[in-house]
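Its record is retained below.
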Amino acid sequence: MAEGVLDLNDGNFEAEVASGVTLVDFWAPWCGPCRMQAPILEKVAVSIGDKAVIAKVNVDEAGGVASQLGIRSIPTLILFKDGENIKQLVGVQKEEVLVSAIEAIL
């Protein structure tokens, strides 16, 4: 698990996104762009602090969640507020884009 980034799976996903603001990165270890996104997520976690949760779901290990949400491309980042899918971004995203998206729904 990366610094400040929570690992989610089929078992804990719903409970973790149920309240507050959570940014979830759907990724896989074999995905080059996903590996590029990882250090950006760590920076977002530092910038946002405890105002929101930054999390990752490995689609190879948590296929149920990925399938349920219709994840077709990775990296896909979904911003949840109180369990509701508010915004979805596909592809590598810059720190500024992610921080402003989070701040817009806080």
About this structure: The CA atoms of residues 3 and 42 lie 6 Å apart. The chain has four helices and five strands. The domain at 5-93 is CATH 3.40.30.10 (Glutaredoxin). The longest helix spans residues 32-48.
